[in-house]
Write the structure tokens for this entry.
Amino acid sequence: MAKSKPKIAIIGAGMGGLAGAATLRKVGIDVQVYEQAPKFARVGAGIQMLPNSSHVLRGIGVLDRLKKIAFEPYSHLNRVWDTGEIKRELPMPESLYGAPFLCMHRADLHEALYSVLPPEIVHLGKKLVGLDQKNGGVSLSFADGTKVEADAVIAADGVHSLVRELIVGPDAPLHKGRIAYRAVFDASLMNGGKIAPSRTKWWGVDRHIVIYYTAADRSSLYFVTSVPESADWMTAESWSAKGDVKELRAAYEGFHPEVQMVLNACPDCHKWAILEREPLPRWSDGRVALLGDACHPMTPYMAQGAATSIEDAAVLARCLEAVDNDDIEGAFRRYEANRKPRTSRIQAISSANTWMSGGNDDTTWLYGYDAWNIPLVGENDLAMAG
């Protein structure tokens, strides 16, 4: 008798939610996506897709599109803040890990993921207000008064996840006194100046800045920083708060001329608090599971937030493909068994902000990971894996 495939509702249409929809459809699972925003906006930020997430993007059919428009850095380059001395450089041709290292505008990645989905399965203006598990399914209630039924729910609703709160209770974010400035702007504002053809992280004593192009033609570039700031500045993880460019430039006074050139050309910027959360005790409850920032939010210092969400999507699809509608809970436990040890490790290293700061640590475990093909442990190995 043929297996009965579940009908799954995904909460959130960010990178993780759209990747989850794409990977689930790839294995023949019916999915609907519910997003609280009334429309998609082109938020001004760059994003790095390292080989570990590029493997997944290739599998869902968007990598070739992205390679045509994204900037492909020569290397993962780490330099001393003032002298420019190289602390560590890792050239990253596609042949190194079998997938490319790409830098792009976040909106370009989002649009690519959306492009492989039928638009009618993505429902905007749907703010979740409640979940009710009963009779082997889940009932979802939205702020507009509508309700839908699904066999299971995947919550990709981000760092402020309502579903996480319903599963594990409220958890307060940790503010460790760090804030970030960021901006995407036209490279022509540097008046002919050019930055290194790499993704460069400039390491200061108590702060850093990461700079890279976001387009294949090097017409635009992006930077993101981390600087100390009083813990009472802001507690909301807002990506839209405006920053003061003069304050930003003052924070990087004395940095290398290449950094100064970029900051002097920057017309405006955003500023937000870098908040953290401890790893969760569990990622699912019955027929409801968490994905991406909803279950393992992390600092941006390893460029693995969206990447690990995209990895989650591929592993979750593999776990669900192997079961019928009667064993969704087991599939969710197996997904957690395979993903939690890795994401917890990345969370910890990213929090410490030590990745590739020097030395010759092995990078294969991170960048060489292929979520489509890595052997999966069974759900009974959860305790051992954790």
